[in-house]
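Retro notes, item 3 of 5
We never archived the inputs for the S-adenosylmethionine complex last cycle. Fixing that now. Sequence and ligand:
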Amino acid sequence: MRLVLTHHRRFRKAALEETSETLGEPRVVEEPDHSVTVVDVPDGDVRLLKTTTFVQHVAPADIAIEIDGSSQDLHRLLQAAEGFAGGVEGHFAVQCRRGAHSGGASHVEAEYTTRDVEIALGRPIEARGAVVDLDRPSQILSTYLGASTAYLGLSTGEDNKRTLVAQHSRYTQPPAICRAERKLDEAIDLWELGGDLREAAALDVGASPGGWSWVLASAGARVTAVDPGELDERVANHPLVSHLKTRAETLEFGEATFDWLVNDMNVDPPLAAEVLLRARPWLRPGGRAVSTLKMAGRSRPREVLASFVSRLEPGYALEASQHLYSNRQEVTLLLRRS
Ligand SMILES: C[S@@+](CC[C@H](N)C(=O)[O-])C[C@H]1O[C@@H](n2cnc3c(N)ncnc32)[C@H](O)[C@@H]1O
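Structure as it came back at the time:
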């Protein structure tokens, strides 16, 4: 089985190790981009990749064709997709991604956009009666445009690690306060946390300039934002946000004051773990925490993650961890107070 794996450029090895542990030893076919690896894996259940952290997205690569960046590629892709199109029915989506240098040309030089590909491949399928559904497609026709090769494959929505690449573009829309808020937006969507935030009490450590506090307050949570730095005026003036202009290490609260704890401090993992453990009693039993884990300058991301989780173990159970589309050299964790 051939797959296109996407990952942060520093997390390729970690993503391949995770793939090996879940699906068997991968054979690397091509590295068309620093954040994409095409692999052959022994046949297995691709849904197992849902448990991985450093694999960002997985797409099937059942067919490979040559491309050169000219508009002729659209015709070539359409022909190749014919093989799948007949099998697509119900709600579907076409997802096209491209490497930094695809079709022998850069983004700017190529004669077509990924959107052109999605439209060109989607139209004939629609014409057969299937319905485009970018939110909950039951089938996804994926296309990845590599350096001189395009990979195409069909998967079900359930098989995909992340339902949507469309989500990827959603998180690249301009944010309200700062780029960081996309991380929490994406975590809330991925782990379906939105329903629990209304009227909840949330502690946001490392809050400045206020993107996460903004996301929480916009979802109806009362937010205590902690950061020695300033908050954006719109966040500072939000009626549901109060700012404590101090370091997280100096905080004191009563037992079970908060339903949610979120942490995006740019500190080393041991200090982040210390702050989370200190804050544990302030979180109600069963309360949840979303935390980033910064990996910059660290060469063994899987070990950093494992050591962080084991440091937290006396106080928190890990529910999920993922390198989000919006994460740079870091991952995001969902924890529950144990
Ligand atoms: C990546 S920014 C956070 C961005 C924020 N999540 C947002 O959406 O606006 C990291 C922040 O952590 C804060 N920080 C670093 N060490 C801290 C500490 N010990 N206590 C509280 N905040 C800290 C920094 O001042 C900085 O504003």
